[in-house]
């Protein structure tokens, strides 16, 4: 990190860290789709997820450290801190969604879970695109487009949740209802957290363009 | 909107949008009381709720757009953004409270739900009064009074929740418990979101009076 | 309060209020350990908890009032407000954790609850140490150490929650599952709220050192 600080202009470091975090979000989302769509070797896949989550944590900590050390930041420190936290939250909720399968000893995944995961992966891609745009802030339309798309995907996730819950209560096994309802709700919150990221994008656009 | 921008001084637009949002909060709260107190024609009443919620969304988007376009704002952009979000959250939780009746195929409402709805309606009225006061910030005592009352109502909702939950577990049908607990908790969160609005009122009073 | 304002320099008042709030957090956490570890005289112990919670509320309100009246504040008003709110949230979640035992008519506590409570008590001690350091901001390493420790304890609480939930589903009584899951999750959120306090510590360190 010390070397990096010499080579890379200070305020560029943040963009690198945001981009690294966004990559981790995408990798985690990709793995989540794989876990739900191909529910085999779960212990091993979850170990991989945990590694990804730790990578995300490490990047977030480096970003907070940089904020502590750096005077020149590309955006307000509060905005940087909000963005790092929001990206970290997305990763945490993806990880939670996968971990709950193990904790609840879920025997098989279902179509709703797969739809949620695909929705989260799409939002992750939009996050990655939006983050790339922050560097120059020249192409504000693209960033705005990402925000609109992430918002749309959050609405899609709401719809999936409604359908999943409605379907769930056709079962009459209360223990199953408790477990699956919790998993569905966690997956829906992952898309809320993506929307938190897009809210920071919007705030940055308001202040800096 | 283009025309409006010419006629209305820029920073007045925000007060108009806040007032429109507060009206939507009141209309939604009124309908919620009606739904719980007279549980008939639910599909139709819920369609009306969904329309109201969309109106709220449209106003919120206009407010965010204005924030993007406008240099002169009556309060800090962050305060405006927090207020718009908080008002939108109140509407969303009212809408959720009603939608869950449909998703869970609830056969009849109960006294606790009606009490929650009345509590939310009272808080909505206080929000409307508080919003009107923001224009001039002359009558700070009235706005402070709204904050105190909204806080009181949030405590009342806590009490309703405790009673409702205590009563609920007298039943021994776990599926019913899951459904009704979720509805009660959502209604209680609606009053938390009203408190978020009053927290923004307090923050604005701290900074601008 | 009027007298105090004369004797104590204005911006010192906030440190006194933070320290009073931190003491209340510690007292509440101590009582929570006692309630879980020695589950007797619950009604009486809960009355005590309610008193403690009201003390916390009163201090929070005094802090907000001071913010309204005072021009010279040691940190940004937003930081003070966030800190007061975060401390108040910790107290509220501790209180909730205890109250749920009564509402759910829980017959006996368990090892997981005791572990949660001890974890919360440790985090409360770190909060107290961190708050003391805010006065001079000379010993930033100690405050950073508190943040790291509170974060670690939040991870410990996550682990306790996973174990508690996994164990819980060995039971097949859905009503019990609903009750205990809710209690465990509330206790875990108490440690999240401790982390919110440490996030404010970090933000203050970033801006003021």
UniProtKB/TrEMBL annotation, chains A, B, C:
**Which Pfam families does this one have?**
PhoU_div
Q: Which InterPro entries match?
A: PhoU-like_sf, Put_Phosphate_transp_reg, UPF0111_domain
* Family indicated by similarity: Belongs to the UPF0111 family.
The name this protein carries in UniProt is Phosphate transport regulator
**Naturally occurring in which organism (per UniProt):** bioreactor metagenome
């Amino acid at each position: 990190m010390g070397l990096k600080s010499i080579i890379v202009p200070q305020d560029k470091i943040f963009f690198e860290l945001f981009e690294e975090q966004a990559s981790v979000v995408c990798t985690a989302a990709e793995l989540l789709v794989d876990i739900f769509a191909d529910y085999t070797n779960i212990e091993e896949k979850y170990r991989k997820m945990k590694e990804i989550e730790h990578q995300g944590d490490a990047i977030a900590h480096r970003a907070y450290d940089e904020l502590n050390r750096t005077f020149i930041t590309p955006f307000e420190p509060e905005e940087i801190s909000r963005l790092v936290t929001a990206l970290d939250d997305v990763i945490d909720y993806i990880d939670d969604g996968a971990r709950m399968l193990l904790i609840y000893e879920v025997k098989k995944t279902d179509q709703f879970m797969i739809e949620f995961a695909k929705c989260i992966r799409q939002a992750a891609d939009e996050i990655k695109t939006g983050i790339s745009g922050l560097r120059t802030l020249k192409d504000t339309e693209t960033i705005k487009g990402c925000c609109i798309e992430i918002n749309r995907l959050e609405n899609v996730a709401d719809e999936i949740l409604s359908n999943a819950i409605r379907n769930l209560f056709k079962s009459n096994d209360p223990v199953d209802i408790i477990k699956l309802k919790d998993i569905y709700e966690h997956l829906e919150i992952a898309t809320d957290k993506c929307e938190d990221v897009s809210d920071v994008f919007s705030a940055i656009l308001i202040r800096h363009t």
